[in-house]
Amino acid sequence: MKNFLYELKLSYHRTSEDPVMGTIKNSRDSFEILKRVFDEDLIEAREEFVILYLNRSNQVIGYYKAFQGGVASVVCDPKLILTMALKTLASSIVLAHNHPSGRKDPSAQDLRMTENIKQACRWVDVELFDHLILTPRSGYYSFADEGKI
């Protein structure tokens, strides 16, 4: 029996004529883009985890609706987040998830998960630009603005 080693190939094709979704300079820019990505009809129903992938100029090259959870939590896998970052040759990422309850403050689990992803990003030379918690009516919480990144 022969051993096979399969060649992996990466293709990079835009699905739109628009070069980018926007440029991110601060948390407000991230929030404005993320409002278009999150499903307005479900933001109060369940938690969802989305990642924005940025190039070296902080232009959004794409997003990944990575994980869906229940009404009180969502579980995310850093390997999947970083796999997509590496595949897209992203220089930095913005994490985001929503709190259907309307509470903007991060939970202890949110803080741990952010720190874990931050550490993982260092290993592959991808910057964790920010992590936002979106709420249905009261705006957002930025980990970067609060000095948590």
List the helices and strands and how they pair.
Blueprint: H1 27-37, E1 48-54, E2 60-68, H2 78-87, E3 92-98, H3 108-123, E4 127-134, E5 140-142
Parallel strand pairs: 3-4
Antiparallel strand pairs: 1-2, 1-3, 4-5
Low-confidence stretches: none
Q: Which sheet architecture does the biggest sheet show?
A: 5 strands, mixed
Supply Rg: 16 Å
If helices are DSSP runs of H or I spanning 4 or more residues, what is the number of helices?
3
Total strand segments = 5
Q: What is the residue-mean pLDDT, rounded to a whole number?
A: 87
Which sequence of strands runs across the widest sheet?
2-1-3-4-5
Query: What structural class do the secondary elements suggest?
Result: alpha+beta
Give, in order, the helices and strands: HEEHEHEE
C-alpha geometry: globular
> Beta-strand percentage?
15-25%
N-to-C CA distance:
51 Å
Helix content: 10-25%
State the oligomer.
single chain
Concise account of the structure shown:
This protein is of the alpha+beta class.
Structural description of this entry:
This protein is of the alpha+beta class. Helix content is 25%, strand content 23%. It contains three helices and five strands; from the N terminus they run αββαβαββ. A five-stranded mixed β-sheet has the order 2-1-3-4-5, sandwiched between helices. The longest helix has 16 residues, at 108-123.
